[in-house]
Amino acid sequence: MSLPQRLLVVVLAAWSGLAQAAAPGTVTLCFERQEVPPWRTLDGGGLNFELLSEVARRTGVSFDYQSMPWKRCLEQLKANQVNGAFAVSFNRERMDLGAYPGGASADPSKRMHVDTYVLVRRRGSRLDWDGKEFKHLDGRIGVQLGYSVADFLRSRGVPVDEGSQRSDELAQKLIAGRLAGAALGGGDAKRLLRGPIAAQLEVLPAPLIEKPYYLVLSHAFVASQPKLAARLWDAIGEARASAAYRKREQALLGERAGRAPGGRD
Fold first, then answer.
1. What contacts 7, CB < 8 A, 6 or more positions away?
2. What would the DSSP string read from start to end of the chain?
3. What is the pLDDT of residues 129-182, one digit of tens each?
């Protein structure tokens, strides 16, 4: 972070402190305005909210949740207009947006959850992914706007279409032949395969990538309240590892729930 950026964080930290004084114990978090089962629903259900509810109980804070398009959520996080965002996967470019638990390497023991991206194709398409390389790729792969899987695809020379905000829009573009495939989160893919267009889609068995997802806090919030930030991240790791939460997670996800990349916690 450059010197001007650091000075800006200090100023914003003071502003954040004043905002917190007006609403003591309240932490404002944004999340994507989209159903992502089993992690989140728009009415405040899902495993992410259950986990954060337990974190609130353990730390004594109250969370003020604000749903919005994902790109706007990340922009507000960077501008310190919210105290944090969830659930955010890690890459180094996103460190300018906010602070991860563990800093530059992100501590997977303090993640909220692990999820996979999968490749979806039109039924009958020859597009393939064997876990290492793409075959019969004859167009762009669609990715939701602001999703980090786009970087994964570009690093492999895959042309990307980021013109959609919702997984449903990507699926419709795929069916219409405007995309060769779509990179979707595992929860989104499962939801589409239970819906009315399931017969027109296929999910390839090899996942594109598996990632941990975090609560990312704004730089101003961490600068003004470093002890509270650490308590929140610690509480996430502790609550997620609790027997009660693991039982709930396994009930919804099956035996692969709770694994970190490589199968280690």
1. none
2. --HHHHHHHHHHHHHHHHHHHHSTTEEEEEEESS-BTTTB-TTS-SHHHHHHHHHHHHH--EEEEEEE-HHHHHHHHHTTSSSEEEEEE--GGGGGT-B-TTGGG--GGG-SEEEEEEEEEETT---EE-SS-EES--SPEEEETT-THHHHHHTTT--EEEEESSHHHHHHHHHTTS-SEEEEEHHHHHHHHTSTTGGGEEE-SS-SEEEEEEEEEPHHHHHH-HHHHHHHHHHHHHHHTSHHHHHHHHHHH-TTTTPPGGG--
3. 999 999 999 999 999 988 989 999 999 999 999 999 899 999 999 999 999 999
Q: Which residue bears the tokens 């470019």?
A: 93
Burial of residue 205 (CB within 10 Å: 0-12, 13-18, 19+) is exposed
Note the pTM of the prediction, 2 decimals: 0.78
User: Does 10 score more than 90 pLDDT?
Assistant: no
pLDDT top residue among 32 and 187: 32
